[in-house]
């Protein structure tokens, strides 16, 4: 178990928290993470694509010309696929792309990728996001993010993890560019993979660790 500094609104050290090895020092299984992320992206597809077959397109059902004597290939309907405006052969139909992924695989992928961010020193914990006299402040939140990584600031893609009900923090960061906000119980492998830096509020961190410790105990 290692520790990580907790920063205040000014980017100064305000304490430390312990990083349980069972959560933040898990082996990163790349094929597993790829499988889980692929399944998550597949489940996000709407699957509402649809083309019309020959029985669904509009047009006369009568024979376009007589069977014999014209020198042309015999035709039975102008709605057949070879005609302009005809039906589509073997076109897409509405379907679900969801893949069944066991909960233990999903949990292992999340711990593996967040452990990778922790080992790469891309995990940060703050007391809270800037408020001025208790009111949300986007400027204060931006200044706090700029103070991370020894004053070099965070990289382009940032994932901020909040505790549910923390409306002041959510309002402070939601308009910042290249930043994605999730609640602790929404954290998933895909959003961690596509983010360079992960920033927890202390309350969100404690909630996340408590839930993962409980799952491990079960």
How are the SSEs ordered, and which strands pair?
Blueprint lengths: L1 E6 L5 E7 L1 H4 L5 H14 L59 H17 L3 E4 L4 E2 L2 E2 L1 H9 L11 E5 L4 H7 L5 E5 L5 H5 L3 E5 H16 L1
Parallel strand pairs: 1-3, 3-8, 6-7, 6-8
Antiparallel strand pairs: 1-2, 4-5
Helix pairs in contact: 2-3, 4-5
Index terms:
single chain, 218 residues, alpha/beta, six-stranded mixed beta sheet, two-stranded antiparallel sheet, 7 helices, 33% helix, Ribosomal_uL4-like
DSSP summary, beta strand count: 8
Please state roughly what percent of the residues sit in beta strands, choosing from under 5%, 5-15%, 15-25%, 25-35%, 35-45% or over 45%: 15-25%
State the distance separating the first and last CA atoms: 21 Å
Strand order of the largest sheet: 2-1-3-8-6-7
The assigned structural class equals alpha/beta
Number of helices: 7
Short description:
This protein is α/β, with parallel strands linked by helices and 218 residues long. The protein is built from seven helices and eight strands, in the order E-E-H-H-H-E-E-E-H-E-H-E-H-E-H. The strands form two sheets. Strands 2-1-3-8-6-7 form a six-stranded mixed β-sheet. A two-stranded antiparallel ribbon has the order 4-5.
């Amino acid at each position: 178990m290692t520790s990580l500094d907790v920063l205040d609104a000014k980017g100064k050290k305000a304490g430390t928290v312990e990083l349980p090895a069972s959560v933040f020092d898990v082996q990163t299984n790349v094929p597993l993470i790829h499988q889980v992320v692929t399944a998550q992206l597949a489940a996000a597809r709407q699957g509402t694509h649809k083309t019309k077959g020959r029985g669904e397109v509009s047009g006369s059902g009568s024979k376009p010309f007589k069977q014999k004597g014209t020198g042309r290939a015999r035709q039975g309907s102008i709605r057949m696929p070879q005609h302009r405006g005809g039906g589509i052969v073997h076109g897409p139909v509405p379907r679900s792309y969801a893949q069944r992924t066991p909960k233990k695989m999903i949990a292992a992928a999340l711990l593996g990728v967040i452990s990778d961010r922790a080992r790469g020193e891309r995990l940060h914990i703050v007391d809270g996001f800037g408020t001025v006299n208790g009111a949300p402040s986007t400027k204060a939140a931006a200044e706090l993010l700029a103070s991370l990584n020894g004053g070099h600031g965070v990289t382009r893609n940032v994932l901020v993890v909040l505790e549910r009900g923390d409306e002041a923090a959510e309002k402070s960061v939601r308009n910042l560019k290249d930043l994605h906000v999730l609640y602790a119980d929404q954290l998933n492998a895909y959003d961690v993979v596509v983010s360079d830096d992960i920033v927890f509020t202390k309350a969100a961190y404690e909630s996340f660790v408590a839930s993962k410790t409980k799952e491990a105990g079960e």
